[in-house]
Design brief:
It is built from 6 helices and 3 strands. The chain has 235 residues and is mainly alpha-helical.
Length: 235
């Protein structure tokens, strides 16, 4: 669906759909974490006997399946927030399974049933710590914050340093999707637009240096007509 072409209503298509999916993935991960935590607290309050052998066998199979799946996702988890979410889901499942094996072994060796919920608490803490960044990043994208990988000040300085540019204002950088970034800016060039090659070169530089693939630049000549947005982030 994210590849759906633009329309009169959705002028960017559905490029932002992966951002909504990333927020949903992060929320589901924390919802699952909450469910594990509730069950863990219940077991702490009322420890119950467990079938260690069966539990360990099923959990060991879970480690193999989820661990292998997470390994397949590992390479792409840095470039796409949704791939990272899927990776964390699988790692969380593998971690829970590993905790079950450890807890089952501990119960078999010591007979202490509390080992199971205590191990679950440790797993909850580890998963919560590792998934916090996913939740934070997905919410930032949902609020159209500039990607952390892009230094907006450096982008502004780069635009201001172009030949013939005397000022930059109304600069905005935001994620169109989990993998694409857009930019809009007004730049002042008193001598006027030097030609289409200026736009083409600028777009190429923004993509190569900052990973911004969808720039829109408005050029002003400062010929006595003040831009209504000139007060915003003037350089």
């Amino acid at each position: 669906m994210a590849g759906r072409p633009p329309s009169d209503r959705f002028t960017y298509g559905l490029k932002s759909l992966p951002i909504l999916a990333a927020i949903a993935n992060a929320a589901l991960l924390w919802l699952a974490l909450g469910a594990i935590l509730v069950e863990t607290l219940r077991r702490l309050a009322d420890p119950a006997p467990i079938q260690s052998a069966t539990m360990m066998l099923v959990a060991a199979l879970g480690i193999l399946v989820n661990g292998f799946s997470a390994w397949l996702f590992a390479r792409g988890c840095r470039g796409d927030l949704n791939v990272r979410a899927a990776f964390l889901h699988l790692v969380a499942d593998a971690a829970v399974s590993a905790g079950v094996v450890i807890a089952g072994l501990g119960v078999v060796l010591t007979g202490i049933a509390l080992i199971d919920p205590v191990t679950s608490l440790v797993i909850c803490a580890v998963i919560g710590w590792s998934s916090w960044g996913l939740l934070k990043d997905s919410l930032r994208m949902g609020l159209l914050a500039a990607p952390e990988s892009i230094d907006v000040r450096a982008v502004r300085a780069f635009l201001a340093s172009r030949p013939g540019v005397t000022a930059v204002h109304d600069l905005h950088v935001w994620p169109m999707s989990t993998t694409e970034t857009a930019l809009t800016a007004h730049i002042v060039m008193p001598s006027g637009l030097p030609g289409d090659s200026f736009h083409h070169d600028l777009a190429r530089y923004l993509l190569e240096r900052f990973g911004i693939g969808h720039p829109t630049i408005q050029i002003e000549t400062a010929g006595g007509v003040e831009c209504a947005l000139e007060s915003e982030m003037v350089v």
